[in-house]
Structure formats: C-alpha cells, structure tokens
Amino acid sequence: MPAFPFSRTALLLLSLLLGACAGATRVVYDNADTAVLILADRYLDLEGKQWKLARGSIGRFHAWHRQTELPRYASLLQGAAGRVERGLTRDDVEWGIQSLRARYAVLVGAAVQESRPLLDALDADNVAALERHFAAEDQKRVRERLTGDPAKQERDRVAAIVKRFEEWTGPLSEAQKELVRRFVRSTADYPRYAHETRLRKQRELVELLQRNVRAGNGSPAEDLRSHLLAWEDRGVPKREFQARFVQLILDLDRTLTSSQRASAIERLRRYAEDCRQLERRG
C-alpha cells in the first residue's frame, strides 16, 4: 500500500514534531525518507525496480512536505500556543481537529500523486504481503489491547493518555488523572469498535488493489485517494468518542496550573520553531 506508508508516516512526522525533544526531532525528520522506504518495504515486500520507484516517490514527497507543509505546521502550532495561552474554548479544540483533518487531506493527495509510478508497478505478491502484514498487526492489537483483564486494559489506556498529556504539561495531579479515568470508562467499548472498523477499511483496501492487479488497468490512484480520505470513521460511536475527548481536553484545560500551561505553550512554540528550522535546512 504505497500511499498508506507515505501519508501515515507524514502524519507520524507531525507527531514527532509534537512529541520529541527538538534536536532528536530534527534528526529524525531529516532522515525520514529512509525510514519511510523501510516502512514501505515492510508493508509491500518491494522487489527489483520497485525499490528505485519507491525511493524516488518518497524523496519527492519528503521534499514537497518540507517546503510546503512545514510552514503550515509552524503557523498552526504558533496559533495553538496563543489559544492555549488564552485558555481553550470548544471552538479552539474544534479548530485544532479540523486543521489536522485539512492537513491530512493534503498529505493524502500528495502521497498518492507521488506514488503513481510505484502503484503502476504493484503485483499480486505485493498485495499478498500487505494482507499478511495487516493480519499480523491485527492479531497483535487484539492480543495486547482487546483481550485479557478488562481492569488492566483500562489501566493501560489511562496510562497511555496520561503519558501523552504529561509530555505537554508535566506531571498531572491525581484530580486530573481522575478526569482521564472517567473518560476511559465512558469510552470502554470504543477500542473494539475502532478495531472492527479498521479491519473493514483494511479489507476494502486489499480488495481495491487486488481488483486493479487482476484488471491490469494501471494505477488505482483516484480510488486509493478516495479510500484513504475516507479512512477516518465518522460513524456515531466515533462522533461520541470525539465529543467526549473534546470535553476531556476542556476539563483538563480548566484545571491547569500556571506552570502546566506555561509548559504546554513553550512546547508548542518550540515545535513551531523546529518546523521553521527544518524548512530552512531543506
């Protein structure tokens, strides 16, 4: 699934900018084209000329991303810092969600466009490799997140969310952690729903690529673009989950100490500067 590693990894690049120390982030981003090539091979078992096609597609995508997207990330991060400084409103959180969705749509379009030569070269073996990789990932997710002691699953979800917030704010208080626990309990059924939705989307993607290989009609670029743009589920459970998560952010924002708020603002501004420096280094 060539465009999937490209678009997925571009989003991971943004996550790295939002979750790692400045120096490490810049090193990782500068070497992202190699990381994405490895990821594409892991999904597709690239052979022969496919390696060269993938390397060229990824290189062009990375160059585009550095020049075009990083300035936009810097602007978004700087804007987010100002909103956090004033204190978040529901409109602020919705602005953040919609901004990320807009950037994702742009990333998908660019990824699919740059991956056309590789899409044309895919064969049945590549699609079979993708299907095997999906199956392995799905089995691991079920084993680690969806089976076993429900109390442990709850603790693990709470710990993961707390860790993510603390990367921005520093240590959360017990009262703040309790807000996270309430959110996790109110969305206890969502991980399984999300897993089942992911299975369906993966199956549809494999079928799309299989049809294209059998028909020999060339690149499925437009169908792939549409599929990836629709990857995020918008069903009722997802909307309810998102509404509760927005409320969690607002509830936590109201409890932030001055030092926690300052930490979040400083990180946002630092990552905005990282984006500007990475763009200039390109």
What would your notes on this structure say?
Mean pLDDT is 87; it is low at 5-22. The chain is mainly α. It is globular, with a radius of gyration of 20 Å. The chain starts with a helix and ends with a helix. The chain has one domain. Helix 8 (150-169) packs across helix 9. It is built from 13 helices and no strands.
Helix content: over 70%
Number of helices: 13
Instruction: Name the shape in a single word.
Output: globular
Number of domains: 1
> What is the alpha-carbon Rg in Å?
20 Å
The ordered H/E elements are HHHHHHHHHHHHH
> Unreliable stretches, pLDDT < 50, 5 or more residues?
5-22
Number of strands: 0
CA-CA gap between termini:
27 Å
Secondary-structure content class? mainly alpha
Proportion of residues in extended strands: under 5%
| Global mean pLDDT | 87
What oligomeric arrangement do these chains adopt? single chain
For the biggest sheet, the summary is: none
What layout of secondary structure does this protein have?
Elements: H1 3-19, H2 22-30, H3 32-44, H4 49-86, H5 90-114, H6 116-121, H7 124-146, H8 150-169, H9 174-186, H10 190-215, H11 221-229, H12 236-255, H13 258-281
Helix pairs in contact: 1-2, 1-3, 1-5, 2-13, 3-4, 4-5, 4-13, 5-11, 7-10, 8-9, 9-12
